[in-house]
Write a structure and sequence with these properties.
alpha+beta; 23 strands; 20% helix
């Protein structure tokens, strides 16, 4: 029987945020390090220089051109070095906003912080709230996360704790009372675009038509929720849509995608349907960036406590084997990327302003400096060139936070590492795909068999009352699903 690995799974959430620097009286008086009007003694400011390598082709879209009854064409995002002063020489690049979003979501998960972006209502087409025939007043997603922990939802007047990710990436309070302004804090870190080295031309793959990005989305209860009102007993089970209640069902957590085998040359993201297919308006034409392309970017930070800098470094590089997912087509096998910390440079403000001849940065970590792009060479001017290039130093801060996470929230640590470090190889017995019915599997020699009837398995299993997404388990294992026609399952 053909086995399937659903393209995504979840990092669990816990009732309390893991944040030794949490401010228990937020909104009354912010700690000194959370101000932007001065540099605070005892905190860290500086720059982290990183390299991002595409280990599979990646697609980061810029402009989009819709077409009538044809796939929308997505052009790569392009940028030029700032020193050019214009877009002369602009090449495909990774926008700072994409990097910020990718790393901030991981920092949130690694500290069990609030989900800073979480809608009040279930998403629907075109931004319209979804309406189920059997909804019966089912609450929105925030109510389910609040049932796990009050600090897991975006900041409102009801919350009194600022979680670690909010302290670092910023926040704006929703619905403040009329008698005071909203609590807000700008981010203390700033990302730059990821650009290739000077003189390197970005290699693009041929334009391809992507498979339809279809999968069960919230509120698909049996995939996104656990049955049970207590984290200690909640388990994967069939959950009818109209029965969902925060007291009886808990969210699985934060969604992450599995990595396909990076050596896969079959291009599973490519649609095999012919031109002018009747569902082409649901597809995209993309031009992926070739695998092994290297991008360099930096992260500037101000007034971070050591624990916060450790957390940021963990978000950048959780472990040596960890791969991130970025851009379009993540469930199809695109977007796996390896991020490395090349340099951690800090600024000693006291010394710098007392002595104008002092170097701009103090080097904490400097690795493979000779391979840094020219735009970063000036960061090393007048610094101590005898700083040892210790490869272990690049992950020392990440490792420090990893140990805290493993000790305090072992289930979150185990799920993060499993989803980020596991590369799954497709073969005759296993597809990384939304599950298909036996009938669809039998059509596997036909064009587009992985794109047609992608909801048939879910509908069939839901109708028979056996639809569910298996747990990762402890220690985590691949939560495989079998092709089935539902009727056979019911007869058993």
């Amino acid at each position: 029987m053909r086995k399937f690995l659903n393209p995504y799974h979840f990092v669990p959430v816990a009732p309390k945020p893991m944040d030794p620097t949490a401010d228990a009286t937020a909104g009354v008086e912010l700690p000194s390090e959370l101000h932007h009007d001065r540099y605070v003694a005892g905190t860290r400011s500086g720059r982290i220089i990183c390299r991002l390598t595409a280990v599979t082709p990646i697609v980061v879209g810029g402009s989009q051109t819709p077409a009538d009854r044809k796939p929308t064409t997505v052009e790569p995002y392009r940028a030029a070095p700032v020193e050019n002063g214009n877009q002369a020489g602009a090449q495909p690049a990774i926008p700072a906003s994409t990097l910020r979003g990718m790393f901030s979501s991981l920092v949130e998960a690694a500290s069990n912080s609030a989900l800073r972006i979480l809608e009040k209502d279930w998403p629907g087409g075109g931004g319209i709230e979804i309406k189920w025939p059997d909804r019966n007043g089912v609450p929105g997603p925030r109510e389910f996360f609040k049932a796990v922990g009050a600090d897991l939802v975006p900041l409102t007047p009801a919350r009194t704790t600022i979680t670690a990710a909010e302290r670092v990436f910023g926040y704006v309070e929703e619905d403040p009372p009329a008698n005071r302004p909203a609590r807000a804090l700008a981010s203390r870190i700033r990302f730059a675009d990821g650009l290739v080295r000077e003189g390197v031309k970005v290699v693009l793959d041929r334009k391809v038509k992507l498979r339809i990005l279809a999968s069960p989305k919230p509120p698909s209860p049996s995939f996104y929720f656990l049955k049970g009102g207590d984290l200690g007993v909640a388990r994967a089970a069939f959950i009818p849509r109209g029965s969902m209640l925060p007291s009886q069902h808990l969210p699985r957590g934060r969604k992450l995608f599995f990595h396909h085998d990076v050596e896969n040359k079959a291009k599973p993201w490519k649609s095999s349907t012919p031109a002018n297919h009747d569902r082409d308006e649901q597809r995209l034409y993309v031009t992926p960036i070739h695998r092994n392309t290297e991008f360099f970017f930096h992260v500037d930070f101000d007034n971070l406590l050591d624990a916060e800098l450790d957390l940021l470094c963990f978000g950048l590089k959780p472990s040596n084997k960890f791969l991130h997912k970025i851009g379009l087509g993540k469930p199809l096998g695109l977007g796996s990327a390896n991020v490395e910390i090349l340099g951690i440079l800090t600024v000693d403000r006291q010394t710098r302003y007392e002595k104008l001849s002092s170097p701009r940065y103090t080097v904490e970590v400097a690795w493979e400096c000779e391979k840094w792009p020219e735009r970063y060479w000036r960061e090393l001017v007048d610094v101590d060139t005898n700083v040892p290039s210790d490869p272990g130093g690049r992950t020392a801060r990440s490792s420090r936070h990893a140990e805290k996470l493993k000790s305090n929230l072992p289930a979150i640590h185990a799920a993060l590492m499993f989803l980020g470090e596991t590369q799954v190889k497709e073969d005759e017995e296993l597809l990384i795909n939304t599950p298909l019915t036996k009938q669809d599997v039998h059509r596997q020699s036909q064009v587009g068999f992985r794109e047609e009837s992608t909801y048939a398995w879910y509908a069939d299993m839901y109708r028979c009352g056996v639809q569910r997404l298996p747990d990762l388990g402890r220690p985590p294992t691949l939560p495989l699903l079998a092709s089935n026609d539902g009727q056979a399952e019911r007869r058993r």
